[in-house]
Amino acid sequence: MDVQVVKVAAEHDDALCDVIKTVGAEYGAIGDGFGPSDPEVLAMSQHYHEEEGSLYLVALVDGEVVGGGGIAPFGEHVGVCELKKLFLLPKSRGYGLGKKLTEQCLAFAKQTGYQSCYLDTLSSMSAAIKLYELAGFEHLSKPFPGTLHNGCDVWMLKTL
Q1: Closest C-alpha to 5, from 119, 79, 107, 90
Q2: N-acetyltransferase domain: which residues (predicted)?
């Protein structure tokens, strides 16, 4: 099995859109208030640019897009980024891809000068929450002001 993590490119957009919407539906993250409904999902490569402080990574297994995850500035919060749209197809889970994506995203965030990283997710995504806890994220009692994902019920923050 050939596993790679690469920067998003236009050639990944359609498959990535399918992955994000499929995994979102698996966990009931459908409609307004959930990441899979964000307009950027239709063309992720057009929305993540390192010079703007954002990066989206794509996980490939034997050349097939199986997931991804990214970092982007969080609203108007200076020094805060967001871990965004970390999704993996069921067949690609359990191989350490989520950990690899998270570590590479957080390394980019730190190199870029962010002081902290926010994320929101669903309590039903227990494996993801465990991954985030192991990566050093701490639970918050409420979402950060300005979050677009009001359907989420778990909010976490990590100091970088």
Answers
A1: 107
A2: 3-160
**For residues 80-90, average pLDDT:** 96
Strands (E), 11-160: 55-61, 64-73, 80-88, 116-121, 138-140, 154-159
Q: How many domains does the chain have?
A: 1
Compute the half-sphere exposure of residue 29: CA atoms within 13 Å on the CB side of its CA. 28
CATH number at residue 26: 3.40.630.30
**Residue 19: enclosing H or E segment and its boundaries?**
helix 13-26
Domain that residue 146 falls in? 3-159
The one-character DSSP state at 79 is T
> pTM for this one?
0.95
